[in-house]
């Protein structure tokens, strides 16, 4: 071992210098990137002016805050809207208390804070309601046990969007023609479609992305972007003239589609030939 070290000490010395230089460089880069961010004191109380998603929001002054201890779905994933809308209900246009953890800012220069509204931990509440998962920093022990227990209870009791069976909304008054009363067809969620192959049903979900092929065929991918979508509604180019709106942008919303579910390359799909087969939630 001693001979090996002597023969390779120059190489180890160079590698060590590179690692030290890299650490200094990246730490300085992060510092310079966030240099203009004003300090935010521990337990500062700030007004929430906008909710970005289920774990990020803006405070007065336009700065971003990332909730510590949790992680919620990004846009295009099943629980994105549920978590975002719930966070809006809880804190939008209200003053919250922002408590520091082990780090002040993340790499995107967002303040990292535990968020409290009238002494209620908002991150813990989202976990209890099955809208988030725990995301713990190994250096930060604050509220660790409470957060883990909150997620565990929600998971065991199948609570909320993350752990429960995401039921299709039955608010037929919001759907003008694609509802069970008018069609006598069962309404299912996009992620249930695989269980209804060769059945004619109404599939409900959010269109996460729209893909147009070289042959001008349109693919509406539900709940998650391709290739992780739960379900796809397809409009072949020969039928596009039947659809007045541009599918690329018009259908990036919550919709229902009617038709017989077929499987293509392991994914369920419905072919849309008539605009009456699809409806947008107003």
Kindly summarize this structure in a few lines.
The chain is α+β, with helices and mostly antiparallel strands. The chain has two domains: 44-163, OB fold (Dihydrolipoamide Acetyltransferase, E2P) (Beta Barrel), CATH 2.40.50.90; 172-280, Beta Barrel (OB fold (Dihydrolipoamide Acetyltransferase, E2P)).
What does this structure look like?
- The protein is of the alpha+beta class and 282 residues long.
- It has two domains: 44-163, OB fold (Dihydrolipoamide Acetyltransferase, E2P) (Beta Barrel), CATH 2.40.50; 172-280, Nucleic acid-binding proteins (OB fold (Dihydrolipoamide Acetyltransferase, E2P)).
- The chain is built from seven helices and 16 strands.
- The strands form three sheets. Strands 9, 10, 11, 12, 13, 14, 15 and 16 form an eight-stranded mixed β-sheet that branches.
- α3 (122-128) runs parallel beside α4 (144-156).
- The longest helix has 32 residues, at 2-33.
Main sheet specs: 8 strands, mixed
Average pLDDT across residues? 86
Large-scale geometry: elongated
How many domains would you count in the coordinates? 2
**Unreliable sequence segments:** 24-31, 167-173
Alpha-beta classification: alpha+beta
Q: In the CATH hierarchy, what is the architecture of the largest domain at level 2?
A: Beta Barrel
Series of secondary-structure elements, N-terminal to C-terminal: HEEEEHEEEHEHHHEEEEHEEEE
Q: Which band does the percent of strand residues land in?
A: 25-35%
Radius of gyration, taken over Cα atoms and rounded to an integer in Å: 25 Å
Please identify the top-level CATH class of the largest domain. Answer: Mainly Beta
């Amino acid at each position: 071992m001693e001979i090996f070290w002597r023969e390779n000490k120059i190489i180890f010395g160079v590698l060590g210098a590179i690692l030290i230089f890299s650490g200094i460089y990246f730490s300085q880069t992060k510092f310079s990137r966030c240099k203009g961010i004003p300090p935010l004191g521990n337990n500062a109380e700030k007004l929430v002016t906008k909710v970005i998603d289920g774990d990020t929001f803006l405070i007065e002054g336009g700065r971003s805050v990332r909730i510590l201890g949790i992680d919620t779905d990004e846009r295009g994933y099943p629980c994105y809207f549920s978590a975002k809308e719930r966070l809006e209900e809880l804190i939008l246009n209200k003053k919250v208390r922002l408590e520091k953890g082990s780090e002040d800012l993340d790499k995107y220069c967002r303040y990292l804070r535990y968020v409290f509204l009238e002494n209620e931990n908002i991150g813990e509440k989202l976990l209890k309601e099955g809208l988030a998962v725990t995301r713990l920093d190994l250096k930060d022990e604050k509220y660790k046990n409470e957060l883990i227990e909150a997620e565990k209870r929600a998971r065991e009791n199948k609570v909320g969007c993350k752990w429960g069976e995401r039921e299709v909304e039955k608010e037929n008054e919001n759907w003008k023609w694609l509802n069970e009363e008018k069609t006598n067809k069962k309404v299912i969620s996009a992620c249930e479609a695989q269980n209804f192959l060769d059945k004619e049903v109404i599939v409900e979900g959010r269109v996460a992305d729209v893909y147009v092929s070289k042959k001008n065929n349109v693919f509406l991918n539900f709940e998650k972007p391709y290739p992780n979508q739960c379900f796809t509604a397809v409009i072949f180019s020969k039928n596009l003239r039947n659809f007045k709106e541009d599918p690329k942008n018009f259908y990036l919303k919550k919709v229902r589609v009617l038709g017989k579910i077929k499987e293509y390359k392991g994914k369920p799909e419905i072919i849309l030939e008539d605009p009456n087969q699809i409806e947008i939630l107003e």
